[in-house]
Amino acid sequence: LFSCFCSSLAKAYRDCHCSNQGSQQSGGPHALSTIFPILPYLLHLLLFAFWGSVAVYLASSGTAEFKYMNMTHGNNSLTTQSCSAQDFNKTLSHLRCQFTQYVANQHLSRLQIYNFIGLIWGMFFIVGLGQVALAAAFASYYWAFRKPQDVPFFAVLHGLWITVRYHLGSVAFGSLILTIVRVIRIVLEYIDEKLKKYDNEFTKCLLRCCKCCFWCLEKFLKFLNKNAYIMIAIYGKNFCTSAKEAFKLLMRNVVRVVVLDKVTDLLLLVGKLVIVGIVAVPTFLVFSRKVDALNNHLPELNYYMLPILTISVGAYIIASSFFSVYSMAVDTLFLCFLEDCERHDGSEEKPYYMSKELMKILGKQNRLQEADK
């Protein structure tokens, strides 16, 4: 059993190497994918701007409350006596009418909650839109029998168009599922905050268990959604069918999936840390005034670690955004590879679609190629 397990791990590692190599090869005809994260970033900015504008308008749509202020010398305090907007800033004896706050009614509070849920849904929707577009682009490379002749020239733009034209409903449904789980988690956090003043160990334990379960559920749904989006990009089916087929495919190759996931995470982490190090080391040398040539052009900072940390965190966030493209490429090509191996056998009727380099690594070959030789 141990030998079989080690053999399956070795085979899974080889498949992982194939997927990573394939993602690097697909970077040539998909050079636009390297700058694709800029589009979701801009869409997120527009979403936050819209959400903020609506939130401000709702907050200022309540009823204005005016009260008299006691203007006695040394005793400028609000009274409980209300006044009208027509009396604003008017002084009557020692009292002056002043605006105090906007009083929101119950409907405005509900609209604020609705607006916030819309923000969460929009964020998940933008992420899903980008994932389907990238998956469609990388899948078009894998399933092209003649590479790169059969690959669309602007594969990423073509994938984005296909997503917008045919798959927005599937993306919206997948993002809605994640939104529901995230809202439940927020409600649990709110309940936990309210119950902190009560010393009830059973309730605390129950809430912790619920929070842990829904955290795990959200992680699983994100993983399932990502693979469902890939199957949508490959076959164009609806979300539920794609999620079911993706789950079955992954369960049939669970060892390969685990190895690929961990190896890819390790490679991405190393890449992010290298980029952060490349940015952080020069930043530290400059702001700590260890570069004599630049000391005359820089102000002396009392807390120079703050800009260093800010720049390093920013570099990590930006690196994570761009490395997400590589992660999507690996996952897409891996699912395409699994589908290719299960559906085809290299015969003239069912030839492999994988590249010649991948077939060489796996020891596979199309019989049509053998006949040509």
Question: Which properties best describe this structure?
Answer:
single chain, 373 residues, disordered N terminus, membrane, Choline transporter-like protein, transmembrane transporter activity
Structure description:
Pfam families: Choline_transpo. Choline transporter. This is Choline transporter-like protein. It is found in: Cell membrane; Membrane. The chain has helices at 2-25, 38-59, 106-142, 155-166, 168-194, 201-235, 239-252, 254-287, 305-343, 356-362, 367-372, and strands at residues 63-72, 75-83, 91-92, 95-103. α1 packs across α9 and α5 (168-194) runs antiparallel to α6 (201-235). By secondary structure, the protein is of the alpha+beta class. The radius of gyration is 29 Å and the shape is extended. The model is unreliable at 1-21 (pLDDT under 50). A hairpin with a 2-residue loop joins β3 and β4 (95-103). It folds into 2 domains: 2-53 and 109-372, no CATH class; 63-103, no CATH class. The chain is 69% helix and 8% strand.
